[in-house]
Amino acid sequence: MTLPDPLHIAGPARAEADAQPPHALRAPTIEQVIGLMPGFVYVFDHETGENVYTNRSVGVHLGYSSEEIRAMGSAMMMHVIHPDDAPLIETHLAQIADLADGRQCTVDYRVLTKTNKVIWLRSVDAVFDRAANGRVLRHIGCASDMTVKKEAVLRLAELNADLEAQVAQRTQAFADLNTELEMRIRERTVELENALSELEDITYTATHDLKVPVNNLCRLGHMLEQSTDTMTQEQAEEVAWISTCAQQLNDKIAALVRISQIRLADEPKFLPSDLSVVARKTLHTLRPALVQSGAKVEVDIPNDSWVSYCPVEIDSVLEAVVDNAVRYADPARPARIVLKFSEEPDGPTLSVADNGTGLSLPADLPKVFGLFQRAHKAPHGDGMALHCAQRRIKRAGGQITVSSTKGQGAEFKIVFRKEEAPDGAA
Amino acid sequence: MEPLDRILLVDDDAVTNMMHTRVIKSSGRARTIEVATDGQEALEIIERDLAAGVALPELIFLDINMPRMGGFEFLERYGALDIATNGQLIIVMLSTSLLLADHARADADPNVHSFCEKPMRIERLMELIDEYQRLRRDRDAA
Known about the structure:
The structure holds two protein chains of two kinds.
Chain A: H1 11-19, H2 30-36, E1 40-45, E2 50-54, H3 58-61, H4 66-72, H5 76-80, H6 86-97, E3 105-112, E4 118-130, E5 136-145, H7 147-209, H8 211-226, H9 233-264, E6 271-274, H10 275-285, H11 287-293, E7 296-300, E8 306-309, H12 311-327, E9 336-344, E10 347-354, H13 365-369, H14 385-395, E11 399-405, E12 409-415
Chain B: E1 4-10, H1 14-27, E2 30-36, H2 39-52, E3 59-63, H3 71-81, E4 90-95, H4 100-107, E5 112-117, H5 122-141
């Protein structure tokens, strides 16, 4: 079949082509152009419902022989269109019937090869000619094989769907885990509250119930010591031991109560404290010990060295650290203690350095801060002060560290939690 | 029964040391009792004896928690001395600790003979000395 008339090149283009000398380049015919185009160009007759022109056979492309195509006749397209897409085509044809001149409409649909393989086609159609009353008689279109692209898109959609399903699954798993964690946290909180309550009971018992018999034991020991003149030497020794043991017990109970009070006390109330004032107060409190040891104290803490901390606890911490420096002075040289304030990246820091007996670090570290632990034999101590100091500082979001060389002294650094200076403070 | 030549008590608690000294004296099973108040002091006694070529104490009663150097640190340092005692010295851990971890740690140390609850009773002391002397006889006979 040749193309219907309107497709032939006419007018000036044709006239120009005719005017060219034989050796000059001639304009290609529309058949040549269409023949070289990929895809299928067709003209569809709305009266007969079949293509009146195609540049190449769709049937051959789908694997049918010429005989089979002839046998299918005008019903071929309806035969090869995927049954699920037949309504699409009907709608599309209806759209073309209403289409204005110069407009296009597009449809993607599936056709089946002879071996039932799915091929995706995209048809772009426009009105070709109309009857005198404007009804569309024929439309012209171009169909392209979109299978590769369409399958890629479909595969991508599948992958996306799969991915979305996985994300949904993971999200659900996280949500479940979160719910479980929240439940465990609630359970654990209840357990901790119970444990805290028990600890409070034990503290109360230690403070009141246990203290009574221990105090009585101490008292009885003292009473027995009053009458040792009627005892043998061994008996008198034993009485002295009983008193010592009772006093040890008393001291340990008091220490345990102090520890538990740090643990059980309400959250520390943070207030601005000027370390220069705290240091002066500490040195005043420890004056008797400082005088006795002959220690020279240097204070390098400017006025208005503000930190945020519970005022009572900060006194206690600083006393513990400075007292430690005094206690472990080296008798071989005059004691020297330096208190220095600095703003460090971790927070405001107070350093207490001494030239005392020093520590073997890291081996001594657990003994420095451990409860009832001591890194030195003398002087006697209860292994409480630095433990409590560290516990207090940690509880308030700070830290306390030590560096030392055996025989050359030690430096304790108290790092307070970072806080904005109060209004008006320097 | 021939008494032991020397027992070393390693404990920082003065009353415990006095009580143990009296228990050992009343048993009549040791000629000399020496006291160290921490692991470091005990180590120095052993090093001193080794340097002087003096026989080491036959029995050491070792506390766990002491200032400066505790019982386990002493055991580490003692092990590092690598002394071939041939069973002539045994170490008994003294403890009131209920912590299983302490017992497990002591059991794992080849230089620890056994545990003894403190304060030590005279019957337990007698058992330990009998056992020490029996082991020594068996070894001498071998």
